[in-house]
Amino acid sequence: MTASGRQLARRFLVLVLLLLGPIVVALDRFGAAGEITLFVLAGVALIPLSWVIGEATDNLAIHTGPGVGGFLNATFGNAPELIIAIVAIADGLPEIVRASVVGSIAGNLLLVLGFTLLLGQRGAFDRRSAYISLGLVAFAGLIVLVPSVAGFHGDPNRHSLAVLSLPFAVVLLLVRLTVTRYSLRRQRRLAEPGTGGWPLRVAIGVLGLATLITAFVTETLVGTLQTFAERAHLSDFFVAAVIVAIVGNATEHGSAVLLARRGRVQLAVEIPLASSAQIAGTLIPLVVLISWAFDPFALSFRPVELFAIAIAATLPALLLRSGETSRFRGAVLLAAYAVLVVVFYLVGDR
């Protein structure tokens, strides 16, 4: 088989696998499969969806530049995390929300970025854009420190802490909007319009549709995680901080590594950085504000969660000073994430 024939065969296989998403959602809605079966099928269904989101982002970045492309990928790719958080709050599971948020930030900056550097081609990236994202994550860590310290003693979910968290969430969101406005203006000045690839409307449409399907599949996967956790004898905190976070970031995992392997280093690095900034600066305050429609949510993170945010913001900042990627730096980030996973396993629930 020729190279073009193999490529067509791979794309056909991906298109066939894309049908798994709607099938999984239908099986879940009609109760036609067991939870473990749904868990496995949903996990498999996320793989081709990651490929599609990566393809759409790559083609979109031809028109917008890598910075804006990474921002759009983070915006669409983090939809599952927002859905997970809202569902968990509505179900009265604030600890799951906090753990999954922290796990998503650490997963993006240590796991996804680590694999991107380790498996991708070497190249340069936008160092200023990287430090803007990391700075926003660090600022979010400082913002949540006040209500978190107040929650070290007593009920961490008490109403007074939710009230205390509200102004901090508003400040964080305003800072995020200001930084985003500056970043997008800067990226538009730096971006050089490209040629080829998908039409702009097609790329945006495919990205939106793939994200919508991913959100439904992720909801199914999260709904079956409890059964998986019970059978695996894992704590709720570990499941939320590691498994739910990895599942919620599956699209970033696949698309960033795929783009890095293709030599699109700047865009590949931008995706996990922009995603972590989106979670820290947008998702966290939005969850606080939306929670008042259900059950007010307090930003009372545990010391181990604050420690994880600090490591996730600091270590990449130290390793990315040169503005160049390397496999060694990727290996260091992955080793740090492995240590965090062990820590998350040992600390258990609050």
Description:
This protein is an all-alpha fold. The protein has one domain: A middle domain of Talin 1, CATH 1.20.1420. Helices cover 81% and strands 0% of the residues. The longest helix is centred in the middle third of the chain and has 32 residues. The chain starts with a helix and ends with a helix.
Topology (elements, then pairings):
Layout: H1 3-18, H2 20-29, H3 35-64, H4 66-77, H5 79-90, H6 94-119, H7 127-143, H8 145-150, H9 159-190, H10 200-223, H11 225-232, H12 236-248, H13 250-261, H14 265-291, H15 303-319, H16 327-347
Summarize the structure.
By secondary structure, the protein is an all-alpha fold. Helix content is 81%, strand content 0%. It has 16 helices and no strands.
Fourth-level CATH superfamily = NCX, central ion-binding region
Count of discrete domains: 1
Q: Which descriptor suits the 3D outline?
A: globular
The percent range for helix content is over 70%
Name of the CATH class: Mainly Alpha
Task: Note the main sheet.
Answer: none
In DSSP terms, counting alpha (H) and pi (I) runs of 4 or more, how many helices? Answer: 16
